[in-house]
Amino acid sequence: MDNKFLEQPHETTKIKKVIGIVSGKGGVGKSLVTSLLAVAMSNKGYKVGVLDADVTGPSIPKVFGIKEKPFADNNENIFPVKSKKDISIMSANLLLERETDPVIWRGPVITGIIKQFWKNVLWNELDYMFIDMPPGTGDVPLTVFQTIPVNGIIVVTSPQELVSMIVEKAVNMAKMMDIPILGLVENMSYIKCPDCGKEIKIFGESKIDDVAKKFNISVVDKMPVNPEITALCDKGEIETAPDGNLKNIVDIL
Ligand SMILES: Nc1ncnc2c1ncn2[C@@H]1O[C@H](COP(=O)(O)OP(=O)(O)O)[C@@H](O)[C@H]1O
Ligand SMILES: [Mg+2]
Ligand SMILES: [Zn+2]
User: Fold this and answer.
1) How many angstroms separate the alpha carbon of residue 26 from the centre of ligand 1?
2) What are phi and psi of 157, to 5 degrees?
3) Which residue owns the Cα nearest ligand 1 atom 5?
4) 12 φ, ψ (degrees, to nearest 5)
5) What fold is seen in the domain 10-252?
6) Which ligand is located closest to the Cα atom of residue 194?
7) pTM for the whole thing?
């Protein structure tokens, strides 16, 4: 894609790799995957940032247990909030009076906020920035891709969805933007029996490997429904989650 669409970040911002995490709709685990990838790379010693661009359901601060407001100076510079493990985080939720306030901004306002998060936030030097993208493949995610130079996309699906159609839409969007799809995550793929460890596929045999093959995507991770992870999200302690949930994807980042 022509670079003229891309916006320049703050002059002090230097980011080596920007990864966008997309899904067909909300509730499939996009924010969880974004957070787990950020934590995994941070645990490896990289400098990591998370840009929560899902203004419709900004849940990143919650899973990291962040309540403080980002500091802004007189020159419209915004400083990201740091997590316990020093991950830099920016989210619309941090700008709301109360974190339970509903967000009813329309498309243009949302894209304006996301542009600000890119241009006015002093991200400093990062090895990885993970972007929790707005769900779907509509105007808002497209504008994000036209604003921020995303290096690769990870698609999150759940077995209850029309996975092939969702991946196809993401593939088409990625092609249009000339950004590679790095891998697929099938979330809530199975549950593990707490007694014997057996993997129970509550939604039947997974179709994700066939879908990956169909679209020529080689990296796939399958993540179980894990009540311990839900609990960590609720407590704002996602940074203490064990590594290894998204091993195949982490290996290629
Ligand atoms: N594999 C999983 N195991 C346990 N809980 C999960 C899993 N995936 C998602 N959840 C929970 O489901 C809810 C929705 O996930 P979230 O990542 O916020 O979805 P999205 O960002 O796609 O809307 C959250 O409460 C999250 O903690
Ligand atoms: Mg989310
Ligand atoms: Zn069992």
Assistant:
1) 9
2) -130, 165
3) 230
4) -90, -5
5) Rossmann fold (3.40.50)
6) 3
7) 0.95
Question: Helices (DSSP H) in the chain: which residue ranges?
Answer: 30-43, 60-64, 107-119, 139-147, 163-177, 208-214, 227-235, 247-252
User: Is the CB of 32 inside a 6 Å radius of any atom of ligand 1?
Assistant: yes
Q: Where are the domains of the chain?
A: 10-252
What are the tens digits of pLDDT across the range 20-56? Answer: 999 998 999 999 999 999 999 999 999 999 999 998 7
Pocket test for ligand 1, best of 25, 32, 93, 188 (most atoms within 8 A of CB): 32
Q: Is the CB of 26 under 6 A from ligand 1?
A: yes
Closest CA to 39 of 205, 194, 239, 176: 239
189 close to ligand 1 (CB < 6 Angstrom) = no
Q: What is the pLDDT of residue 75?
A: 85
Dihedral sign of CA atoms 43, 46, 49, 54 in order: negative
In this predicted model, what pLDDT tens digit does every residue of 114-166 receive, in sequence order? Answer: 899 999 999 999 999 999 998 888 888 888 899 999 999 999 999 988 899 99
Residue pLDDT, tens place only, 74-103:
888 999 999 999 999 999 888 776 666 666
Q: How far apart are CA 202 and CA 200, in angstroms?
A: 6
The best mutation among 191, 233, 234 to test binding of ligand 1, ranked by most ligand atoms within 8 Å of the C-beta, falls on 233
Average pLDDT, the chain: 91
Backbone angles phi, psi at 154, to 5 degrees: -120, 130
Q: Is the CB of 236 under 6 A from ligand 1?
A: no
